[in-house]
Each structure stands twice: as structure tokens, then as C-alpha cells.
Design goal:
- The chain has 354 residues and is an alpha+beta fold.
- It folds into two domains: 4-79 and 101-175, no CATH class; 190-346, Protein Transport Mog1p, Chain A.
- It contains nine helices and eleven strands.
- A hairpin with a 3-residue loop joins strand 9 and strand 10 (317-324).
- It is globular, with a radius of gyration of 26 Å.
Length: 354
């Protein structure tokens, strides 16, 4: 095992210890979806610790530092500042000719070379770039001329936190996991013409909203494929009206977002994965794309663990709906069409985006 999951958990613990919530609040499905698809919220952390947490919370396991790499990178730097009782217990002096600690060759970062010389060179080049963007981090570079320094010169007493932050920042640059604030051109996204609205009841009163698990809409950060989106989730239960009408489902869980999407079906698939992928799931019906009569969009459906999940993706919304109990995919797709017609509503002309 590589320990990548433990490193990811460490990143979450760092944020939680600072009083933050890396992926916000919400249902387990919502949190799992954000953990897979959304950048973590690191605002609760001091600036100097954010690169460390960001590296640990990288989405791709191979881009996270290994536990060994974290120790090799950070532990030696903790002695940069003497402890309060250093006079009673003087630190062992290190020869100036000793090369600085290098990243472990086991670190699964594509930019790293297994040779210590190449690693030191890479860190020397990357650290100033990474540190330059941190408010509390000093610029750190490799010191290849340490052996030529004047003997007896005072030791470098850079604050430990700054050294750690800069080293972790270098790790981020080398791993290609730098978090940057970007702006996205409005003209590259489709116009916003519709939005989601989760009513108290839907499908002619057949399903009523579960008020005990009500969550407010949750704004989502813009990214290269999505802009101005808001996440929605709500659970519905069949009502007496629905029972009288003979609807096929007892519960309906709506999980989606509305905004402006370049590839809405990709977002739909991500939502459906969040509702179905557990690592030990049993697939009853493989995913299939269905266009029910009267629908203007394809609906994708699958049955996993005795629950049927359907979803759609259009220019302004991406939604996954889980039905219990399972049913024929055609029946679930038709019910999804009816639900979509009720919860996807036009935006007033005065407020629609250009």
C-alpha cells in the first residue's frame, strides 16, 4: 500500500484542526462528491500550512507525497530553530559540506529524478516560485556553495514554519498540483436560461420533500468547465397521492446543480458516480442512455445495489436521481423526465446571464 489515502486523511485533519471543513457541510454523498471533484477549502489554515495540506489533498493519489517523502522533506527542517533548552542540550553540528536533505526517490512525483543532485537542483528552482506566492513564507533556494562558506559563520535561523511552507510549496510545484486562482471568460460558456428549483412536492404531488434532511443551496466555485453553479440536494418520499396513483418508487433522492456547463454530461456522470460507486457495488443494469418520448435531452440510467439511478446533463443543469426500489430503466427514465420538467425552470429574462 502506498499510504496515499492516509496522506489525504492527514490533509483533512490539518484543515479540521484549524477549525475548517475541507469539503463543507452536507450529506455523505455531497461530501464524497466534493472530495473527488472539488478543490478543498483551505481558508481556515495559516498561509504557511496551505501548501502542505493542498499537497496531501491532491485528487490523484500519485500526486500526493508519500509518508516517507513527507518525513524526509519536513522532519529534518524541524531542527532549523533551536529548542528553548538548546543551551543545556546543544545540537550536533553538521558539516557545511553536507548536502541538504533531498526528497526520497520513492516520492511518486513525475518531475523528480532519483538522483540526489537532480532533486536538489529541482528544489532549488521550484522553491522560490512556490514560496513567492505565500504571504508568510520566505523564498528558499538550495545552497550548492555551502562548502565554500566562511567557517564559523552563524547558522541559518530561518523560522521552521517558513522553511516547511516553502519546501511543501516546492513539492506542489514539482508535482504539478499548484492551486491557482483563475478567471474564466463568460463568452466560452453557454448562456444561463434555466435553473433548478426544489419544490415541496413534485410530479403532481406524488412525492413530498423530506423536511428532516433539508439542506440549503450550496454555491460551487467556478472552474474550467463550470461557471455560476449552485448545488442542490433533496430527498422525497412517496405521498398518499402517489400511492393512490400507483407510482413505482417509495423514495426519490435528487442530487445536482444548475449553472453554466461546457460539458454537462461529464458533470452528470460525476454525480451518478457519487451516488453509485462504493468499491463493492453490485451492478444490476449497466448504464444505458435513453431518450423518453417528449424529452429534449438524453437520460442515462443504471441500477446499482437494488437502486436505480438516472441523470441528465444540459447547458444549465446536471442532475442525478436515485430511485428506491429499483425498476426497469425505461420506467425510471420516464419518471426522471417528469421530474426534470418540474424542477428545471426558465430564468426570468431580466436576470438571465448574457
Amino acid at each position: 500500500m502506498s499510504g496515499a489515502a492516509d496522506v489525504f486523511a492527514l490533509g483533512g485533519v490539518l484543515v479540521a484542526a484549524a477549525g475548517g471543513q475541507p469539503f463543507g457541510q452536507g450529506t455523505p454523498m455531497m461530501l464524497m462528491y466534493r472530495a473527488v471533484h472539488e478543490p478543498a477549502d483551505l481558508s481556515a489554515l495559516p498561509q504557511g500550512l496551505r501548501p502542505v495540506a493542498a499537497a496531501c489533498l491532491a485528487k490523484a493519489p500519485e500526486r500526493r507525497p508519500t509518508p516517507r517523502a513527507l518525513l524526509d522533506l519536513l522532519a529534518p527542517l524541524s531542527t532549523a530553530e533551536p529548542a528553548p533548552d538548546a543551551a543545556a542540550h546543544p545540537a550536533t553540528e553538521v558539516s557545511p559540506a553536507t548536502p541538504p536533505p533531498a526528497l526520497s526517490p520513492a516520492t511518486p512525483l513525475p518531475a523528480l529524478s532519483p538522483t540526489p543532485t537532480a532533486v536538489s537542483t529541482a528544489v532549488s528552482a521550484a522553491a522560490p516560485v512556490a514560496a513567492g506566492g505565500l504571504a508568510d513564507a520566505a523564498t528558499v533556494s538550495a545552497r550548492p556553495k555551502a562548502a565554500a562558506e566562511v567557517p564559523g559563520s552563524p547558522p541559518d535561523k530561518r523560522p521552521v514554519g517558513r522553511v516547511v511552507a516553502a519546501a511543501a510549496g516546492a513539492l506542489l510545484v514539482l508535482g504539478g498540483a499548484v492551486y491557482a486562482v483563475s478567471s474564466y471568460d463568460d463568452s466560452s460558456f453557454p448562456p444561463a436560461t434555466h435553473e433548478l428549483v426544489l419544490p415541496e412536492s413534485m410530479v403532481d404531488g406524488a412525492y413530498g420533500r423530506d423536511v428532516e434532511h433539508r439542506l440549503p443551496p450550496d454555491p460551487l466555485p467556478d472552474d474550467a468547465g463550470r461557471k455560476g453553479a449552485t448545488h442542490y440536494s433533496a430527498d422525497y418520499t412517496v405521498t398518499s397521492t402517489g400511492t393512490e396513483k400507483g407510482v413505482a418508487f417509495r423514495t426519490v433522492e435528487v442530487y445536482g446543480s444548475s449553472g453554466r456547463y461546457k460539458d454537462p454530461e461529464e458533470h452528470r456522470d460525476g454525480l451518478m458516480d457519487a451516488m453509485t460507486v462504493t468499491g463493492g457495488e453490485t451492478v444490476g443494469d449497466p448504464p444505458r442512455t435513453i431518450r423518453p418520448p417528449g424529452s429534449d435531452v438524453d437520460i442515462r440510467c443504471t441500477t446499482v445495489d437494488a437502486k436505480t439511478v438516472c441523470g441528465w446533463g444540459d447547458a444549465n443543469s446536471a442532475v442525478a436521481i436515485r430511485f428506491t426500489p429499483s425498476a426497469a430503466l425505461e420506467a425510471a427514465a420516464e419518471e426522471t423526465r417528469r421530474i426534470r420538467a418540474e424542477i428545471r425552470r426558465p430564468i426570468a429574462t431580466s436576470t438571465a446571464s448574457p
